[in-house]
Amino acid sequence: MSTFLYRLGRLSYRRRWTVIIGWLVVLCALGVAALTLMKPFASGTSIPGTEAQRASDVLAEEFPSGSDGITGKVVFRAADGKTVTAGAEGDAIRAVTARIAKTPGVEAVTAPSARAGSVSADGRTGFAQLTFTVEQADEIGAATLKAIEEAAGQARSAGLTVALGDRAFDPVDRAAGGGAGEAVGVLITLVVLILVFRSLRAAIVPLATALVGVAIGTLSLLALTHVVEMDSTALILALMLGLAVGVDYALFIVSRHQTQVRDGMDPEESAGLAVGTAGSAVLFAGATVVIALAALTVVGIPFLGIMGLGAALTVVIAVVLALTLLPAVLGLLGARIAFSRIPVLRRSARRSLDRQRAGVVTLGVRWARLMDRRRWAVLLLGVVGLGILAVPAADLRLGLSLPSTNAEAVRAQKMIDEAFGPGYSGTLVILVEGDGATATGAAAERIAQQVTKLPDVASVAPARLSGTGDAAMVGVVPESGPQSERTEKLLTDIRAARDDLEKSTDTEINVTGSTAVSLDVAAKLSAALPVYCLLVMGLAVLLLTLVFRSIAVPLKAALGFLLSLGGSLGVLVAVLQWGWFSSVLGTQASPTVISFLPILLVGILFGLAMDYEVFLVSRMREEYARGKSPVAAMVDGFGHGSKVVTAAAVIMVSVFGSFVFADMQITKGMGLALAVGVLLDAFVVRMALVPAAMSVLRHAAWWLPRFLHRTLPHVDVEGEKLTGRVEPQEDAGRRDDLLTSHR
Fold first, then answer.
1. Is residue 405 within 8 Å of 586, Cβ to Cβ?
2. Residue 460 burial (CB < 10 Å; 0-12/13-18/19+)?
3. Band of residue 726 on the pLDDT scale cut at 50, 70, 90
4. Other CB atoms closer than 10 Å to residue 168's CB: what's the count?
5. From CA 399, how far away is CA 518, in angstroms rounded?
6. Does an H or E element contain 509, and which?
7. Which fold has domain 361-406+528-706?
8. For the segment 321-347, what is each residue's pLDDT rounded down to a tens digit?
9. What is the dihedral sign for C-alpha 624, 626, 632, 636?
10. Most buried of 130, 135, 181, 649 (most Cβ within 10 A)?
């Protein structure tokens, strides 16, 4: 493998303009494809294979609404002693709803009505239901929103309290990016790269190639919306992950290349060797990420599988660019990659090289020696500390609803909860399917009577037959909110009560509604998570066994990941559920965490954790293969790789962390989970527990059964086959000439 990549790196270096122009052509072609083929992102989430989703599909067929447009609510509240249906207040509301109905972009408006259930029992509060002609909130025109707001102002002038709510008026559905936060993340990335390379032009190279990869990946996904239904979250995840791994992979190769050129190696030979050695580690690190992401398809939830495949595509693009476009760009710089023209950076690089040549012990080596001396204390402290961070994870509850950060939408929901009860927004819908109106209606009436007797039921609506008479629906309003454990218990009780009734009436009874869908998805993901973890970790352990030719190293890597995962889940629960640091991060406490976030975190974090394992331990393996003792190999390998891994982790944390300041709550959650996960895995597990564990294991770390030695192919990640290909370094005279040429 290393030999092939060595040749690929040298070929790309020599044919640099051909490679660069080729990628520019690909970028332009994808841009045209995206502009001509892209379709709007999916407005809803389909979860096949669950009872609630199947019943929801039947409801859509048997009780068609006549519109697929997005909905919104205008909530009105009258003063004490007044009602929203009579007097001047009622006249004002009717005038307002009539005005809104004439607004371009609004398909229909249903005024507050006691018969329709949109007026509270005391008559003081009611809401108008709006249906728009578009299917997504971001498609509603600014003129339409302004006209509705002006109409609401007319009601306020009449003495009514008015708030706009539901998805149409909540910018959480429209905002897709982090804005200034993302720019800060990119700026931090550039600063870290400058500190690593001590050269502005060398620092720009990884960032530029990563941005090209993000552009290619994003345009590819936009073009694929023509044939695949995709949620906007898939694009956000691809952008987030593509930028982070793109910079990291390029950093690993450029760092190796720059060091070799500074040591006097011919730049073309150095580019080939960097791609052959560091590029091999990048290839296998990327493979672990792709495995973890692509395996999301086994969960059986389409939108989650699409997110995983979309993110995996961007990682594949990042790897291919690192192995081809990156050496081509290095070819444009030639020997100038070694030192900066900026005096301060050039002097800093010269001092660093002089210290290295003088044999000064680096910080990484000193840290590794400390981990060796205090190995048992480090292991105990690290495991206990991560265990403490993981404690809140025991309180993890999953759901699909997200808290709003829009003050008016929150106020509208609060008005509805106070007037109609907290369970009004989480109505459960019982679907009864039978043969003929008589049997179906009778069964619906019986299930309604049984449900009325259950605890935590606020009200049960009369059964409503479909046009065909083969289906009936019964609405059940819980006393508790949609995310309450009591509502979850009520759903279980309803499904238990229907079993005997189905047999006696020869009907099929299912429960749906947004709350039921959320709980069914959480149950499905909980069942799939162990299978997913075993699949991903099993495949990754096999891959790392092939890479490192070791049993202990892959197992140690997997166990370390479990520790960092537990800690990151604990922080996630503390922030998103308990509300810690919400004022600083701009998050809103919620009874549940978005249901697919933990399994998404498992997939992405495991892949990234294995990235750092490969980057760090491959250099230890390289030193061990050269005949050094296990501890010496660990210390020297850590000394070489820790600087790059530290920089890569800081970059990854800054990129992910920038998304915490996005407007979308799901983006905040993903950014927070990944930033914390990488922080814990890189700086606690890989930087502390890994060297300590390698010191404890010693020769056992590299043990492999004899039969596996014979059967496993040798992939040569460390570039052992290239040793004879690379000419010995020239004497210090050439190195001094190189220094002089850049002074």
1. yes
2. buried
3. very low
4. 25
5. 5
6. strand 508-512
7. Multidrug efflux transporter AcrB transmembrane fold (1.20.1640)
8. 999 999 999 999 999 888 888 888 888
9. negative
10. 130
Give per-residue pLDDT as tens, 36-57.
Answer: 998 877 655 567 778 888 888 8
**Is 361-406+528-706 in the same CATH topology as 1-37+198-359?**
yes
What are the structure tokens assigned to 97, written together? 């709803």
Among candidates 133, 127, 142, 140, which has minimal Cα distance to 106?
133
For residue 721, what pLDDT is reported? 64
| Pair of tokens at residue 164 | 């706009």
DSSP class of residue 119 equals B
Q: What are the domain boundaries of the chain?
A: 1-37+198-359, 70-173, 361-406+528-706, 407-518
CA distance 324 to 663: 36
d(CA 613, CA 686): 7
The predicted model scores a pTM of 0.79
Give the architecture (CATH level 2) of 407-518: 2-Layer Sandwich (3.30)
Take residue 166 and report the two structure tokens written for it.
């539901």
The strand pair at 398-399 and 125-132 is best described as unpaired
390-404: pLDDT as tens digits: 999 998 887 766 666
For 1-37+198-359, CATH number? 1.20.1640.10
Alpha carbons within 13 angstroms on the beta-carbon side of residue 629 total: 4
For residue 736, the one-letter residue type is D
Q: Which residues is 459 bridged to in the sheet?
A: 477
The answer to whether 473 and 58 have CB atoms below 8 angstroms apart is no
CA distances from 562 to 211, 352, 575 (A): 31, 37, 20
Ranking 340-354, 372-386, 505-519 by mean pLDDT, the lowest is 340-354
* Tokens (6 digits) for 58: 């039947």
Query: 126 by DSSP, 3-state: which?
Result: strand
- Count of other CB atoms within 10 angstroms of residue 266: 16
> Helix/strand/coil (H, E, C) string of 657-682?
HHHHHCCCHHHHHHHHHHHHHHHHHH
**Based on C-alpha coordinates, what's the Rg of the chain?**
30
Query: Which contiguous run of DSSP H or E holds residue 73?
Result: strand 71-77
Inter-residue contact 536 to 556 (CB < 8 Å): no
Q: Nearest 5°: phi and psi at 527?
A: -70, -35
For the chain, the residue count is: 743
> Which alpha helices (H) appear in 295-360, and where do they start and end?
302-323, 325-333, 343-357
- Structure tokens that stand for 99 in this block: 């005005």
As a whole number, mean pLDDT of residues 240-258 equals 89
Burial group, residue 556, by CB count within 10 angstroms (0-12, 13-18, 19+): buried
- Maximum Cα–Cα distance across the chain: 99
HEC string of 591-636? CCEECCHHHHHHHHHHHHHHHHHHHHHHHHHHHHHCCCCHHHHHHH
Q: Which fold has domain 70-173?
A: Alpha-Beta Plaits (3.30.70)
Closest C-alpha among 292, 299, 288, 191 to residue 247:
191
Q: How many helices (H) and strands (E) does the chain have?
A: 26, 11
Nearest to 693 by CA among 614, 611, 630, 618: 630
| Residue 179 or residue 421, greater confidence | 421
- C-alpha 643/C-alpha 637 separation (Å) is 11
Q: Are 451 and 430 in contact (CB under 8 A)?
A: yes
Query: DSSP code of 579?
Result: -
Whose structure tokens read 């800093």? 348
Counting Cβ atoms within 10 Å, is residue 32 exposed (0-12), middle (13-18) or buried (19+)? exposed
Mean of per-residue pLDDT scores for the chain: 84
